Amino acid sequence: MKKMNRRTRVVALSLLMSVLLVAIYLCGILIPEELTASSFMNTKLPPSLQHPFGTDSLGRDLFFRTLKGLSVSMTIGILSSVISAVIAVFVGIAAATGSKKVDAAINWLIDLVMGVPHMILIILISFAFGRGLKGLLIGVAATHWCSLARLIRGEVLQLRSQQYVAVSRRLGKSSGWILVNHLLPHLVPQFFVGLVLLFPHAILHESAISFLGYGLPPDQPAIGIILAESMKYLSAGLWWPAVFPGLTLLMIVLLVEKLGDNLRMILDPYSAQE
Asked: Which fold, 6-31+53-271?
């Protein structure tokens, strides 16, 4: 039997992780409301076979509530990552193809956004747009595009210096034609890898802002809300409302980060024969 090379193993592992993430997301969306409803006969129960993650102070099953919260947090993470990645592509291309003044202005804006702590900036933007889901989504999306934009800018500058791009210019091809046929195909891998790697940062910031009380409303079963509620009872010995949701969030973040690294390796042509 022929041994799989490294690239094949990485592809198989990435597919497995993708299926797991999609399954967790769909389970959270499809959970009926009665499974996360309050039950005052089952308050503060420790982990058991019937309640793997235990129950909270209102008798809600923390296993199903955590899955529901993960789906909410993952939805915000996906939307904000997509918006941030799209912004990064447009800004990076504009900086690389525009005039020196445009490039300087964009670099100044990137330095400004990156110079302010993300948590503070997200809170300010969230307040400006009325808090809640809308404010949090805009706040997270508007603060996570800078690193990818710089990467896209550098990639476009390198591509514009290639000989085939210079030949296309001499043949009379327009800037739009060069962008569509020469630049964008090379930027697609960078876009998808950057999109995946933005997700862990987005979901962690969403959870942190909701934990502090500046994000989603308390009735939303997001991970940050669940962790904030658990802090009230941690000193009383109720460790499970904080530990299990926190560990599942950490697992999702590490899975997506590893998936992003694997995607970068898959798209790297030099790894094909390893």
From this structure: MetI-like fold (1.10.3720)
